[in-house]
Amino acid sequence: MLGAISARRNVGTLGSHCMLMAATMLPAISGCFGSPPAALKPVASPDGTWVVTPSVNRSKADRTTYLCIAFEVTDAAGNPLHQVQSNANDRMKWALGWYDNDTIVLASSDVGTSAWQLTANGSISQLPDSLPAEITAHAQRLTDAKYGP
């Protein structure tokens, strides 16, 4: 009888350990599944003229951009203006936002910070890799706001 009680106690302890292990590992492995839908919400420019909406490229047609962040720029009425495909992978930390009313910033832990500028006529161009310190600092603030400092 004592052996049966001891065996039941060990099974209970083992079950508790398994539950504890699962609870501690779940946050770690959940990052393997990419961004939750909440991370892909539209972001309006500070003055409301433009909206940028991130998405994840799930097309396997081009393996170099599969699971990378893309974004669409629309005007305030929702009319599409531009589609941009980045090389920032969704499996890594990334944040997208506005630096000012016409500059979009994408901070990525795998490819660094990129920025695009919109003009009054609606064209878009990627800024050179040597970004001003103010933009890279803003990219860090975007990342901290999304993931914590």
Report on the architecture of this protein:
Strand 5 and strand 6 form a beta hairpin. The chain has 2 helices and 8 strands; from the N terminus they run H-E-E-E-E-E-E-E-E-H. The chain has 2 domains: 32 residues; 111 residues, no CATH class. The strands form 2 sheets. It has a 4-stranded antiparallel sheet with strand order 1-2-3-4, with no helix packed on it. It has a 4-stranded antiparallel sheet with strand order 5-6-7-8. About 19% of the residues have low confidence. It is α+β, with helices and mostly antiparallel strands and 149 residues long. It is globular, with a radius of gyration of 22 Å.
| Gyration radius, rounded | 22 Å
**Largest sheet geometry:** 4 strands, antiparallel
Number of strands: 8
How would the global form be characterised? globular
Structural class: alpha+beta
Descriptive terms for the model:
149 residues; four-stranded antiparallel beta sheet; globular; alpha+beta; 2 helices
Write a brief caption for the model.
The protein is of the alpha+beta class. It is 30% helix and 34% strand.
Write the layout of secondary structure elements.
Blueprint: H1 2-30, E1 43-44, E2 50-56, E3 68-75, E4 80-89, E5 94-100, E6 103-108, E7 112-118, E8 124-126, H2 133-147
Antiparallel strand pairs: 1-2, 2-3, 3-4, 5-6, 6-7, 7-8
